Amino acid sequence: MLKIRSILIVLTYLTVSNLPNFAAGHYKEYIYQNKWCDAMCGIKEYRLQDKTRIDCLTNTHAIEFDFANKVYESIGQALYYSIQTKKKPGIVLIVEQPAKAEKYINRLKQVANNNGIDCWLMYESDLTEFHIRPIE
Description:
By secondary structure, the chain is α/β, with parallel strands linked by helices. Helices cover 44% and strands 23% of the residues. The protein has one domain.
């Protein structure tokens, strides 16, 4: 009986931990990363010598994924990964609340335009009907 209970607990944990948080309407970053990186034929979680990981490495870009409110972290990481790989820096900004994200998108545009960072937006709807959305 204890063995069956332990198995049920583990299965429940694995099931729940891999589901999106439906109450908040949000998905985990890796869900967006997997969808975008697969569509772009990139390598997910590419490991550098210093053991840091690039979210998606394509033939041309080292790409960092982050939610809109973490835009500053994504800028630093994308630039660092670019230096390490000698590829263009890229950022996919995940937008789950467009009205709240607008200020972060505008800030990213300013920094990206002045530092040669290619950027894309990804919305929750892109998980079911994927679109490439470059920021210009």
